[in-house]
Amino acid sequence: MALSQEVRPPSENYRPRSRWDVIVIGCGIMGAAASYNIATKGLRVLNIERFGVNHEHGSSHGRTRIFRTAYYEDPRYVPLLRRALEAWKEVELKSGKTLLKMTGGLMIGRPDGELVAGTLKAARIHGIPYELMTASEAEGRFGAFRLEEGLAAVHEQGAGVLLAEECVRAFVGLGSESGCEYRFSEEVRGWKARTQGVEVETQFGTQSADRLVFCAGAWSGPLLKGVVPLQVERQVPLWFSSGGEEKFTPQEMPVFVAEEGDGVFYYGIPDLGHGVKVARHHGGKVGEPDKVTREVTEEDIAPVRSFASRRLKGLDGPPISSTTCLYTNTPDFNFAVGPHPDDHRVSVVSGGSGHGFKFASVLGEVVSSLVSGEKLDYDISFLSPARFGRRGPS
Ligand SMILES: Cc1cc2nc3c(=O)[nH]c(=O)nc-3n(C[C@H](O)[C@H](O)[C@H](O)COP(=O)(O)OP(=O)(O)OC[C@H]3O[C@@H](n4cnc5c(N)ncnc54)[C@H](O)[C@@H]3O)c2cc1C
Known about the structure:
Elements: E1 19-25, H1 29-39, E2 45-48, E3 64-67, H2 78-95, E4 100-102, E5 105-109, H3 114-126, E6 131-134, H4 135-141, E7 152-156, E8 160-163, H5 164-177, E9 181-183, E10 188-194, E11 197-202, E12 205-214, H6 220-223, E13 231-235, E14 238-240, E15 255-259, E16 265-269, E17 276-281, H7 298-311, E18 319-322, E19 325-329, E20 336-340, E21 343-350, H8 360-372
Helix pairs in contact: 1-5, 1-8, 2-5, 2-8
């Protein structure tokens, strides 16, 4: 697929200012959200991004992301998610863009499986409204699905779809209005902590700041010198033709996650104009971000196509489009968010582990509090980059 727009080289008049309050590395969704939120504190922010806005090498492209609150992964995420939802709505209002379409969400699997049991646990602990359905009840209500007896489905009204590229653009637009400076096509090649602050080396020279924020996604591992153990995993979302059928529209079909009998997870998003999105969650090849195969093969397509035709009525054809995207996994699949273990002037927002996008609106606020030395409104100790017990070379 062709790369996105806006990969702009610095102009001929490029005369870098070299001292900032905060430098943010990376302008995927995390860096875009962090830069905007930090700039709103009145701090001078430089965002350095090696490609452009909404490029297709990283983790934040591919049109859409699922938002949900009854979090099977871990109920400790729920307070963050509640604020994330409010914050997305505020960004919508400020930017004048539609970013989130509420469709409801359906979590499908064995009643005692990780997905259904975990969703129910999070919903009950936090008083999130939900409906537990049998397979035939869910099929009767949502015509898109084919579910055999014995499966259960938890419906959460407050789930939906984030328009991924619009979200990044909204943050960059608001960040520019708030005084944040963006440098695209500029690559951070190294950084050093100094007594007076931090220094960042790019192909154009040295920039320094009081504080540094790492939002480098799949490229974070080497930049962080192994402090956070990260594994980069290739993923291949596919889009299938809905044939224009009503049952696949966002009015009729909720976003869904399904835990299949073999423990493999798939997810899907209704047709917002480009087809029904279906993908396998995890199970991709692990490798280096710049060496990932971008070609989509029959090996990528076959299991997802088989899942789609099994679970979604009439979704039997070949995919009509595809992309490749990267998960950046921590060993426990929880994010790495918080101060760098060796230097509290440096913050880390990484390790999205395939579920980070929906949190960007609140994590941007969290990191702006971190760099401003404000008390956090949430317990993020379970996300601490220091939990892996590694320290960088001194
Ligand atoms: C297929 C797929 C589906 C997903 N589905 C969901 C979902 O439904 N819901 C959900 O909540 N999450 C989902 N996620 C996860 C979510 O999208 C990611 O957690 C999130 O996008 C990560 O954002 P990021 O900003 O950390 O990374 P990125 O978007 O990759 O941004 C990192 C940026 O840093 C830049 N960079 C790196 N190194 C340097 C350097 N040295 N100098 C300058 N710039 C640098 C890169 O160019 C890149 O732009 C999904 C992810 C994928 C891949």
